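Batch manifest, entry 17 of 40.
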Amino acid sequence: MKVQIICIGKTAFSYLDEGIDLYEKRLKHYLPFEWIIVPEIKKAKNWSADQIKQAEGQALVKIIPSDSVITLLDVKGKTFTSEEFASFLNTRMISGVKTLSFIIGGAYGFSPEIYAKAQFKISLSKMTFSHQLVRVVFSEQLYRAMTILRSEPYHH
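Output type: structure tokens
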């Protein structure tokens, strides 16, 4: 199974890039993994949140592979413990999913079109994190899940 994280825009801080790079290198030892960065919408300073979500949604639809199982990282999603998330991944792996796409929305979340395409929604916490910080936190949780599935000591 290939895992991809699709997100809107580049990160703004080098410390986030360092964290992302660290977990990307680690994850590649366990499974095919890639980041897909959708460019931010340009000239949208005077747009409403709904207009931005709609434009980002249209850009995401063009990027998401047609054979992908789509999971949104969303405040309205289901929360998991790390072990439960590892089990979620394992279930997708053994069921023959070819590509599992995790999507991190922009600052305003997702358009209705993207919600309609998603098979799953996951929340990392009841707290709100910046969409850029979520990249590092979720990368680490993916890595942690893989170590749990392999019974490696990282989780402890």
